[in-house]
Design a protein that fits this description.
Blueprint: H1 4-16, H2 29-37, H3 42-60, H4 64-76, H5 85-100, H6 104-121, H7 124-140, H8 144-161, H9 164-180, H10 184-201, H11 204-207
Helix pairs in contact: 3-4, 3-5, 4-5, 5-6, 5-7, 6-7, 7-8, 8-9, 9-10
Length: about 210
């Protein structure tokens, strides 16, 4: 627990964390900064937004260790008991960075925490992306049964939402995992789904 003032500061930080990235698009950026200063400590807002943004960017640029450090800075500013989509998104990004640095056990726990929060929030798109990351973690841990189950989950959501490239990629990965588990019927179904879907969406590397 914490005192009321600290809790309210955290809540305002969560509410306004996305504003700095769009300040220059405002008609009067200086006025926007002053307005924000009435609600939240500008230095905390700056640090949180910078760490979150740099973390997301560097993870995609192949600099996972820097991503992890940046995301960890943002992570420490949050009260993780707050049920807010920002907390879940930050955990999901942290899990991805942990995967890329090879910290698979921590990545698994972090992704699982993010998934629980996304389930509570009903955020289907985030469940899709985080389940995909968690499947990659399970594969890296050689926990193929878990990986296949998660890939089935991703395939179901991606089919429902209309993302055939994700269906094809996860069906192929699922088939490889099922083959290693000697679940040959599942493997054959996976390969057939991967090829059929890949042909439909032009993924030539899987369609061959």
């Amino acid at each position: 627990g914490c005192d009321l003032a600290t809790r309210e500061e955290i809540a305002r930080l969560v509410r306004f964390h996305g504003r700095p990235a769009f300040l220059l698009e405002k008609p009067n950026p200086a006025h926007e900064v002053v307005s924000l200063s009435w609600w939240v400590t500008n230095r905390l807002l700056y640090l949180f937004a910078l760490a979150d943004t740099r973390g997301r960017t560097t993870a995609d640029m192949g600099r996972p260790e820097e991503a992890f450090r940046s995301l960890d800075s943002a992570y420490t500013l949050l009260d993780l008991s707050v049920h807010h989509d920002l907390v879940a998104r930050l955990l999901a990004s942290r899990g991805y960075a942990l995967l890329k640095t090879g910290n698979f056990d921590s990545a698994a726990m972090t992704c699982d925490d993010a998934l629980r929060r996304f389930e509570l929030l009903g955020d289907t798109l985030s469940i899709l992306s985080t389940s995909s990351t968690r499947a990659a973690v399970a594969t890296s841990q050689n926990d193929l049964a878990v990986a296949v189950a998660l890939q089935n989950k991703v395939i179901g959501i991606a089919t429902e939402l209309g993302f055939p490239h994700l269906v094809a990629a996860n069906a192929f990965n699922k088939a490889n995992g099922a083959k290693s588990l000697k679940r040959f019927t599942d493997a054959l179904e996976g390969y057939e789904l991967a090829q059929r879907t890949a042909e439909q969406c032009g993924m030539l590397d899987l369609a061959m």
